[in-house]
Write a structure and sequence with these properties.
The protein is built from eight helices and no strands. It has one domain. Helices cover 73% and strands 0% of the residues. It is globular, with a radius of gyration of 16 Å. The chain is an all-alpha fold and 178 residues long. Keywords: Membrane, Transmembrane, Transmembrane helix. This is Prepilin type IV endopeptidase peptidase domain-containing protein.
Length: 178
């Protein structure tokens, strides 16, 4: 059984409580209030800066700015170029994976395939942990969730459920991986 510092246990508990609150809002109203997504995104960016992951924070900031370009047709190409430049200066493989996930999630939001709250929550998680591999269990749970919705003939199921369950699965995996 791995041993954890009290600060790590508190951080994970706060993170899981935040995700649970986001899920409750999403299930009840199909919306997650901005304060539940923007504030954690900013806090995760500050945390990542403190940890030395400035490259990831710069990419997120660039993508936010690119979202406001007046010519929508230029957003994806400019974001691609920015991400490629970011990958060139990434300091570690985990930052590379994190950058790729941040770009993918941003692009899904940009083309309308994902909600803004879902994108901000995932990007905040990736910023906090600086590990894009977190996205794998989220996507897997999302796939299962989609199949359940298909069988149950529900048009949509809030993706915050998949984000929360996938994050719990990822935390469990990393806690026992050595």
């Amino acid at each position: 059984m791995p041993s954890y510092l009290p600060a790590q246990i508190i951080a994970w508990a706060l993170l899981l409580a935040w995700l649970a609150i986001c899920v409750i809002f999403d299930l009840r109203s199909r919306q997650v209030p901005a304060f539940l997504t923007v504030l954690p995104l900013i806090l995760a960016a500050v945390w990542q800066l403190i940890q030395g992951g400035w490259q990831l924070v710069v990419l997120v900031a660039l993508l936010v700015l690119i979202s406001d370009l007046p010519q929508a047709k230029w957003r994806i190409p400019v974001a691609c170029a920015s991400t490629v430049l970011g990958l060139c200066i990434a300091g570690s493989p985990s930052i590379v994976y994190a950058m790729l996930v941040v770009f993918a999630v941003w692009a899904l939001w940009e083309i309308g395939a994902s909600g803004g709250a879902d994108a901000k929550i995932i990007i905040a998680l990736v910023l906090f942990f600086a590990d894009g591999l977190l996205f794998i269990p989220i996507v897997l749970v999302g796939g299962v969730q989609g199949l359940v919705g298909l069988v149950a003939r529900r048009k949509t199921i809030p993706y915050t459920v998949a984000i929360a369950v996938g994050t719990v699965a990822w935390l469990w995996m990393i806690s026992y991986s050595g």
